[in-house]
Amino acid sequence: MKPEQKMEGYIRKAVDEYKMLSPGDHVAVGVSGGKDSLVLLTGLWRLRRYLGIPFSLTALTLDPCFGGKEADYSGIAALCGEMDIPFVLRRTQIGTIIFDERRETNPCSLCARMRRGALHDACKAMGANKLALGHNRDDATETFVMNLFEEGRIGCFSPVTWLSRKELTVIRPLIFAPEKEVLGAARQSGLPVVRSACPADRHTEREEIKRWLAERDREDHGFSLRLFGAMKRAHVSGW
Asked: What is the pTM (predicted TM-score) of this model?
C-alpha cells in the first residue's frame, strides 16, 4: 500500500470513529507548512471524493514572520491551486512579539496560545465551522508525557474539541497516524514543505520528550504504541 493511501486510511478511521465530519461542513485546515498539515490537507482532499460526506475545504496559513521576515508559501499556494482549494494566508506579528519585544525564555506556550487565537478568529472570519489540525499519534503521546512529567497532570488534547466561545469545532484527523509514516507520505508525494524559521526549533521541551520516547522504543519495542493505546482505552481527556 502506498504511503498516501495509508494516510487516507488513518484519516478515515479517525473521521468515522470520532464523527469528525458532517454534511455541509466548511473545514479550515491549519496549514503551517510542515509535513503533518500538508499530508492532512491532501488526505482530506482525496477522501472528500469518496467519503460520502459533502464538505468544503479551505487551507489557512498563519505566518508568524519570525525575525520580522515573511515566509515564502508560494509552493503551498500552487498546491492548493492544483487541488482547487482556496488558500488563505495571514501575516502576523507573533514572531516579533515573542522573540524581539518580549524576549520570552520559554516561548512555545505563548506562541501556541497566540497562534490558536489567531487561527480561531480567522476561521470565524471566513465562515468555517471546523478547524482541522495536523497533530499525529506521536504528538498525542508526547503531549501526554509532557503533561504528566512537567505539570503533574493526566491529560492530552482531544481528537474533537468544541469551543463554545467561538462556536468552532477543532478536529485532528491524523490522530492515528505515526509520525514516521506521515514523513514518508510527505516525501513520497513531494509536498512543498516549508522549513520553520522559529529560533527555538529543535530546542524545545517537546524535542526532549520526543528523544526520550524514541529511546524507550528502541529499548522496549512498541512502548509508545502501548502508551497511546492506554490513553485511548482510558478515555483520557474525553477521548
From this structure: 0.94
Q: E strands, 51-142, where?
A: 55-63, 87-91, 130-132
The domains located in the chain, with CATH, are: 3-238 (3.40.50.620)
Where does 135-198 show beta strands of DSSP type E? 160-163, 168-171
- Which three cell numbers mark 19? 464523527
Distance between CA atoms of residues 221 and 208, nearest Å: 19
Cα distance between residue 151 and residue 143, in whole Å: 11
Q: What is the pLDDT along the chain (239 residues), one digit of tens a residue?
A: 888 899 999 999 999 999 999 999 999 999 999 999 999 999 999 999 889 999 999 999 999 998 889 999 999 999 999 999 999 999 998 888 888 777 777 788 888 889 999 999 999 999 999 999 999 999 999 999 999 998 999 999 999 999 999 999 999 999 999 999 999 999 999 999 998 888 877 768 899 999 999 999 999 999 999 999 999 999 999 88
CA 98 to chain CA centroid, nearest Å: 21
For residue 218 the three cell numbers come to 528502541
Give the type of residue at 201: D
C-alpha cell of 9?
Answer: 486510511
d(CA 200, CA 206): 11
